[in-house]
Amino acid sequence: MANLFGGNRPMDQARIVPTGETIGSYSSYLDAQKAVDYLADQKFPVQHVSIVGNDLKMVERVTGKLSYPRVALSGAMTGAWFGLFVGIMLSFFGSAGGEATLSIMTSVLMGAAFWMLFGIIGYASQRGKRDFTSTNQVLASSYDVIVTPDVASEARRLLAQLPMRSTAPAGRPTQMYPPQTPARPDGWHDPYGRPEVPAPASAGNPPAAAAAPEEAPVRGRFPDLPDGRPQYGIRVDTPAASPESGRPDGDAPESRG
Q1: Model pTM?
Q2: Could you give the number of structural domains in the chain?
Q3: Which of 12, 139, 163, 257 has its CA 20 to 30 A from that of 65?
C-alpha cells in the first residue's frame, strides 16, 4: 500500500489492527492527532505510531426536511455555479466585451434551469421515501495511540510533558499475591467420604496443628452430622437376628400342628 510521505507497507500488515503498547487514550480524534503531532515535533520516529478507534459507530445527522421548493432552489444554485464555470471557459475562446458577459449570463441561467429540472424529477421519482437531508459520519467512542514496544517508554515520557488528559493505563506491572485457601467451618465433612488433605502453608494460611489419624473411610458408609443425625435419609433400627434360626426375632416361621 503506497504512502505519499513514506515508504510502501506490506499488504498483509495494512489489513491487520496494529499491536503494541497504548501510550494514550482520548475521547476525540483531534486529541489523538494532537498527541501524534507533538511526538513528531519532538523528533520522535512517528512511523512506529498508530491511532486505533474503538467501538466504531455510523452517525447520520438530519439537517432538514425536503420539499419541492427546497429541491428546486438547491438544484438552481448548483446549476448556476456549473454554468458560471462553463461560461468563463467559453469566454476564453470567444469575443471579449459585452458578448463575453452575455455568454456567461446565458450559461448561468441555462445551468440553473437544467439542474433545477433534474432535481425536481429526481425528488419526484423517490415518491416521498426520503423527505429529509442528512450527513453521514463514522465516529468512535475512544481513540488509542499505540506504539511499538521498543520505543514505548520514550513515547510515554514525551507525552507526559503534554498538558492533555489521557485515560491510558500507566503501564505498571500488576502485583501478584499468593492464593489463599479459605478456612473450612468446624464439623465440615466431605459427603463423598474422601480424606481431608491439609492446605499448604502460606502467608495467609498458617500451618495447622497435626491432627489425630482417622480411620480409613468405608465405601457406602458416610459419617453422621455434628448433631448426630445421618447425612442422607433416616436411620431405621433393625431387630437382632436369632442365633438358632438365623432370622431376626419375630420373623420365625409359624408352627403347624
Answers
A1: 0.46
A2: 2
A3: 139
